[in-house]
Amino acid sequence: MATLVDQDFFARLRLLSDKFAASVPGMLARLATLRAVFDPHAPAPESVAELRQILHTVAGSAATFGFRAMGYQARALEQRLRVLMAFDVIAPRDWESWLVSLDNYLAWAEIDPQSKNYPDENVQQQ
């Protein structure tokens, strides 16, 4: 028995993919803005929460729309951020280490967010 295929499915998926791709520069700009004002000695809770939310959104959506390594790395950053958020006191050096990873992510994504390779982590997505 043949499976019925929604003829409009791929057209809708392409529109959603285009919408996601169009949102990437703004998302990267917002992450960079939050990064620029981030104080590892006294991080603002609102900024930490917004960073986590953006990374969570990217991690959940990126692979669907052809940005696998970007999503994978966003998930890794989000998970590390969640660990930091779980503690009442965090040493500035721990925040600084996380910020270096965020800086690397932003630098990589600015060049080619759809790349299948993430050089700092030797991630290769098929």
UniProtKB/TrEMBL annotation:
GO molecular function, one term: protein kinase activity
Pfam families, alphabetized: Hpt
Cell inner membrane in keyword set: no
Keyword Endoplasmic reticulum tagged: no
GO biological process: phosphorelay signal transduction system
Keywords: Two-component regulatory system
The name this protein goes by in its record: HPt domain-containing protein
Native source species: Massilia psychrophila
